[in-house]
Design a protein that fits this description.
Layout lengths: L8 E5 L4 H12 L3 E6 L2 H13 L6 E4 L5 H15 L4 E4 L13 H29 L2 E6 L10 H20 L4 E8 L5 H7 L3 H11 L8 H12 L10 E4 L9
Parallel strand pairs: 1-2, 1-4, 2-3, 4-5, 5-6, 6-7
């Protein structure tokens, strides 16, 4: 499917693996000029080489730690410099942070910096250009909102929802849309190595919680990202869209 994105530019965070890498791959194949950032820049470079081998534009790889406010500013500047402008921002970066009631301030600060503040900071940095041009897309990847224990990442990702909805109201008239995607179980490092490390645990969870009968793939999220980024989705903003195979909201 042609999402009418040829020639657009995009910055993707958390692009070294999983959903972020899937988004980079699909957008590049749609003719988007992509800047991709993560700490593991070697993974982005390998993905870029693979895309170049297929005849697509190689993503601009930008190394950076988005838990650091100064690094976030540098990433935004580097992406704008490399691409000329950033039309689309896809905030994929994140990581689970299970914790206990006595966790210290630094732990919570890191979880919020990774899972929420980085998205807010990059949007703040890139919005002026989008508003001036009268066109922009901000797409956030969140997560489960039904925890079964303390997890600082869940709390931080939850902040994305009202922030994005409020921001959507502020910038809609200027041609900028802001939407959030809430993935269910997607085959990625975090899911396969940490949350469900065995085939038995995956099968048990699927049988109890996922009507469609399997975990999703990064491409299942990437296709929705491409649609929300496209002119075809111009009337969609301020939404939170689950992509979870029918997984009930109480699942964890």
């Amino acid at each position: 499917m042609d999402f009418e994105l040829t020639g657009r530019t995009c910055l993707v965070t958390g692009a070294s693996a999983g959903i972020g890498a899937g988004v980079v791959q699909l957008l590049a194949r749609q003719g988007v000029k992509v800047a991709a950032t993560a700490r593991r820049i070697e993974n982005i470079e390998r993905l870029g080489a693979s895309l170049a081998g297929e005849g697509y534009s190689r993503p601009v790889a930008i190394a950076g730690d988005i838990t650091d406010a100064a690094a976030v500013a540098q990433i935004g500047t580097a992406a704008t410099s490399a691409l000329g402008q950033v039309d689309i921002l896809v905030n994929c970066a994140g990581g689970s942070r299970p914790t206990t009631v006595d966790a210290g301030e630094k732990f919570w600060e890191e979880a919020f910096a990774l899972n929420f503040a980085s998205a807010r900071r990059l949007a703040t940095a890139l919005l002026p250009g989008m508003r001036t041009r009268g066109w922009g897309r901000i797409i956030n990847i969140s997560g489960t909102m039904e925890p079964r224990g303390l997890n600082a990442a869940v709390t931080a990702k939850a902040a994305l929802h009202p922030w994005a909805k409020g921001l959507a109201c502020e910038v809609a008239v200027e041609g900028v849309t802001v939407n959030t995607i809430q993935p269910g179980r997607i085959n990625s490092e975090q899911i396969l190595e940490k949350l469900h490390p065995t085939e038995e645990s995956r099968r048990s969870f699927i049988e109890r919680n996922i009507p469609i009968g399997y975990f999703g793939e990064p491409a299942d999220i990437a296709h929705l990202v491409a649609f929300l980024a496209s002119p075809l989705a111009r009337y969609i903003t301020g939404t939170v869209i689950p992509v979870d195979g029918g997984m009930r909201y109480s699942a964890h």
